[in-house]
Amino acid sequence: MDLALSLGRRNLGATWPNPSVGCVIVRTDDDGYRRVVGRGWTGQGGRPHAETIALAQAGAEAHGATAYVTLEPCSHHGVTPPCADALVAAGISRAVVAMHDPDPRVNGRGVARLRDAGITVDVGIGADPASETHAGFVSQRVQRRPLVTLKLATTIDGRIATHTGESKWITDAHARRWAHGLRAAHDGVMVGSGTVLADDPLLTCRLPGLEARSPVRILLDRRLRIPLTRTLIATARQHPTWLLTLPDADGQRVRTLQDCGVDVIKVDPRETGLPDMAKALRLIAERGICRLLVEGGAAIASALLADDLVDRLIWFHAPAVIGADGIAALAGLGVDRLADRPRFRRLAIRPVGEDLMESYERIR
Length: 364
What we know:
Structural class: alpha/beta
Largest sheet: 9 strands, mixed
Order of helices and strands: HEEHEHEHEHHEEHEHEHEHEHEHEEEE
Strand content: 15-25%
Distance between the termini: 28 Å
Helix content: 25-40%
Shape: elongated
Strand order of the largest sheet: 11-10-9-8-12-6-13-16-15
């Protein structure tokens, strides 16, 4: 199962709207020697499925073998036939499944299909790491929003720029390479219009060999103030780009952005007139995004934190200070009582070049 989980993680960020599943087929020979006869992981774009690849590799040796799968095999007809049926047809004798699939079209039906065929099924081995790997898929199916990871890069006093707005670069090249790796492992990356105006980012993955793993670029711009010459707009035909704005956005401006290749999505506002972030995430999830990386700026990060919509936090700390006149990583959250503050559990801390990277998960 550890091998299956490792295989499944390979394509995180590249299989949406499907989960990135790993499958290993193991055969025990007459002398008791166990051999891996098939390995597979979900292909880019969600096809082919991991089980299909592993079974094709195993061939006739799948008969009587054990299949280790990180998520319950699908039992419904979609673009491809059900993987549960494929495992039955291959003649496996046992299936080890890390966790049930929360999709209502599957949830328990895949396991039932295997058991009805006389296959021994064990569920729950490797459940904890599988739950982490498939957290985005579960969030998209159950909560109807993507798993949200907020990435911050600040000085040790929490500043993202000087008082003049200079921000390149707070962290060093090692941390920036890590950030590109995070992009490769997510389906979408979101920024606010302020970040685009200040930094003019490209938001692609530019690690050698992983350029094709760039996420969908998502821009929140309620006033449509981003110039057409900014990199995100100018490269929208080369890299998928979505723009979230309000329903009353200027129609001519919207059409011009669409002509540039931008997919414009209208989001209802809150009473304050600002976009409703919960509704924005729901719209993104409806389009298949399971894992969303948010790279700033302070306004969008604070809005998500205030609405309790951040699930993971990756914080890069540079060994420097700017002071109170610098621009803070977060705007006000309106916290009056300590009991109401968003709280996180530290998962890991590690040096990255001269910087320090800390990862957290939200305490629910």
